[in-house]
Amino acid sequence: MRITEVSPSTTTVNSLHRSQLCHLPWSTSVVSWRRIGEEYCYQDFTVPVDVNCKPISVDLLRKAGRKILLQSSANAFKFDQLRSNSPSENELDLKNSLASDNFPLAVPGIFLLCCAFMCPCFRAKRREAVEHSVLDRHLNSMDSISSVEVSSASEKIPATPLKIPPSPSRFSLSPQLTRIGSVHLSINQITKATRNFSPSLKLGEGGFGAVYKAVLPDGQVVAIKRAKKIFEQEEIPALRDEFSNEVELLAKIEHRNLVRLLGYTDKGNERIIITEYVPNGTLREHLDGQHGKILDFNQRLEIAIDVAHALTYLHLYAEKTIIHRDVKSSNILLTESYRAKVSDFGFARTGPTDTEQTHISTKVKGTAGYLDPEYLRTYQLTPKSDVFSFGILLIEILSGRRPVELRRGIDERITVRWAFKKYNEGNLRDILDPLLDEVIDEQVLGKILSLAFQCAAPTRSDRPDMKEVGEQLWEIRKEFGKSLRKA
């Protein structure tokens, strides 16, 4: 608010006697001061205001104004103290006050006296309003972050991010455990939703058990993963650890290229995990042509980038480093728009927690053909073990072949060796899936194969980390786009 100061005319001021100061219009009544004090400062202002007006000099008013401004608490001010520090009686003499020339300066002094009382009150009110405004904005920002986290798994996100997810604070990294259990189902409800685990609703089967499609009463479609049993009423003991491990790790991660955990059931001899339903089957099924449509080169490249982003998140941006240990085509699920989601965290492990620790020692787990040979030999697990598996997966995506082809001749049985031999001979097109009816630029093909062989290097020190892999794939994708425009 703009304040305009108006000075009284010299004639008017000169006509005022100092004894009339108490009766000036700006000498507010006691009642008014009491109302102002109660409304704005919650204090009684009648003591400093209701005083006997005595003649005071201009110098005294100036000193009073300055003193009020320098005091830490204006409300503690008392005129009696000022009077005790005032000049001598001689200085209070009317002759020395020279009312005609110096008196106009008293107006700002009086004005400052009022401001000294009032400004702290208004300032406190304003600060309180600002604090509320800041708090509201903070709460609103928290709500917006939450909405971003929920939408991070949505299909509305662009096909491929422009770069590797930059930081946990931007990529909905580690949601609270309260997110788990968003789907609460009893065993009876699960049995009903899967029609007593009907084979017609079975999506697949792995080491942990079978996965079923289920439609909940509210219409939501989910995937039900049920642990295997030795007999009808007995669970396999080793699967209990796998179940606990998967639930614990899935509860701490959130990424659009990772399957989300919605709930679980651990009651009696039943171990059931409820996850989001990904409707378009596995990558391996598509490479086998089971869905009637062959993945084109661009779709395969996009899937590789999605998986690289997921592993980068697990290695760098999760609450703790997570090593998947079972990266393979049958654990990559595809959405209707062919976005990839990494699933099955039964073998996953948290990585080294100490900065000086380079690995963790653990039993070897994984799938033949994807296993890191150094991990297999030393029992030392690092994130580079996932990098090796990704290199094998990349060759699988390009060639359509499984890592181990037992029905082929000895020279072609191990796919990575066969592909590396073809690469060295310069026969790059022989490596491509014969079902791919496309002409791919050889430079693009050479770069992606070179990256795959770097990832699948026998020793982990020769492998890039997943963040570097994702960045290189992005550059390859841009070059592939340029080659299409040229054609």
Automatic annotation (TrEMBL):
Ligand binding (ATP):
229
**Membrane-crossing segments per the record:** none
SUPFAM superfamilies noted in UniProt = Protein kinase-like (PK-like)
List, alphabetically, the InterPro entries matched.
Answer: Kinase-like_dom_sf, Prot_kinase_dom, Protein_kinase_ATP_BS, Ser-Thr/Tyr_kinase_cat_dom, Ser/Thr_kinase_AS
Single GO MF annotation: protein serine/threonine kinase activity
Q: What's its top-level EC category?
A: transferase
Q: What is its EC number?
A: 2.7.11.1
Which residues are in the Protein kinase domain?
A: 197-475
Give UniProt keywords alphabetically. Answer: ATP-binding, Kinase, Nucleotide-binding, Receptor, Serine/threonine-protein kinase, Transferase
What domain of life does the native source organism fall in?
A: Eukaryota
Name the catalysed reactions: L-seryl-[protein] + ATP = O-phospho-L-seryl-[protein] + ADP + H(+); L-threonyl-[protein] + ATP = O-phospho-L-threonyl-[protein] + ADP + H(+)
Pfam families assigned to the protein according to its UniProt record, in alphabetical order: PK_Tyr_Ser-Thr
Q: Which family does it belong to?
A: Belongs to the protein kinase superfamily.
Q: Which PANTHER family match?
A: OS01G0750732 PROTEIN, PROTEIN KINASE DOMAIN-CONTAINING PROTEIN
Q: What is this protein called?
A: non-specific serine/threonine protein kinase
